[in-house]
């Protein structure tokens, strides 16, 4: 069955460092991969989308890579800040209405 | 109002009650979704409506009944729920039809449901 694994349930880093979150998937060939941010008690907020024919996408301090051979995406936040503390969700879609999500990684950025 | 609005934000109900969750999107999107989020579990897709027609129904128990009267409104009618149905129910919308839909979702803040 299709499966998405996000590297760890929680990640602690120091302010100013780069946070790297991992998303691995199996039994799936997504056309699109997305990353969302979710704060406690709130709905997820879309951050970035990368297509299967793209290797890398950047937006301000965020960078996403997509390796369809390894079936893996890396999500980087550079110069991390305490305000970046949240849960980050990886999501996959083949196009259409069925987007599937990972369980998320909780990021804690310490001042 | 902007984005996707869900009401109520919090709901407590007994197992014999009937209640409804409401979602409204102000983005002009043509697809709307219900997702369920339980603690430490991935979001589970429940229902999808595209142009007011149900296109996905992910083996959801009949005690959950969706309704989409138009492309801006989505309801989830709840009836004789179980305590394990307690969760955060998220509404989302997206643009694009069929495979042109990249899956990029815009979520509401969710309705936190507690079933006693």
Describe the fold and architecture.
The complex is a heterodimer of chains A (111) and B (116). Chain A is built from no helices and eleven strands. Chain A is mostly beta strands and 111 residues long. In chain A, a hairpin with a 6-residue loop joins strand 4 (32-38) and strand 5. The model of chain A has no long low-confidence stretch (mean pLDDT 93). Helices cover 0% and strands 55% of the residues of chain B. In chain B, strands 2, 4, 5, 6, 9, 10 and 11 form a seven-stranded mixed sheet that branches. In chain B, strands 1-3-8-7 form a four-stranded antiparallel sheet, with no helix packed on it. Chain B starts with a strand and ends with a strand. In chain B, strand 4 (31-37) and strand 5 form a beta hairpin. The mean pLDDT of chain B is 91. Classes of the chains: A mainly beta (111), B mainly beta (116). The interface between A and B is medium-sized, with 29 and 31 residues.
Briefly summarize what is shown.
Chain A is an all-beta fold and 111 residues long. Chain A is built from no helices and eleven strands. Chain B is mainly β.
Characteristics of this structure?
heterodimer, A: 111 residues, mainly beta, 6-stranded mixed sheet, 57% strand, B: 116 residues, 7-stranded mixed sheet, 11 strands, 0% helix
């Amino acid at each position: 069955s299709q499966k998405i694994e996000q590297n760890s349930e929680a990640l602690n880093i120091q302010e100013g460092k780069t946070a790297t979150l991992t998303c691995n998937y199996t039994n799936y060939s997504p056309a699109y991969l997305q990353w969302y941010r979710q704060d406690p008690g709130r709905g997820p907020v879309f951050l970035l989308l990368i297509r299967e024919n793209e290797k890398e996408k950047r937006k301000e301090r965020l960078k996403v890579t997509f390796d369809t051979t390894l079936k893996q995406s890396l999500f980087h936040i550079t110069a991390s800040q305490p305000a970046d503390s949240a849960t980050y969700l990886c999501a996959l879609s083949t196009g259409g209405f069925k987007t599937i999500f990972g369980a998320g990684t909780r990021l804690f950025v310490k001042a | 109002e902007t984005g996707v609005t869900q009401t109520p934000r919090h709901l407590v109900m007994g197992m014999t009650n009937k209640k409804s969750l409401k979602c409204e999107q102000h983005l002009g999107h043509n697809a709307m979704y219900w997702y369920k989020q339980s603690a430490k579990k991935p979001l589970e897709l429940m229902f999808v409506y595209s142009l007011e027609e149900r296109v996905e129904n992910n083996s959801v128990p009949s005690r959950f009944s969706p309704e989409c009267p138009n492309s801006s409104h989505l309801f989830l009618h709840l009836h004789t729920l179980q305590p394990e149905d307690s969760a955060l129910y998220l509404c989302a919308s997206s643009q694009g039809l069929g495979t042109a839909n990249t899956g990029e979702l815009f979520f509401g803040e969710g309705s936190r449901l507690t079933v006693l």
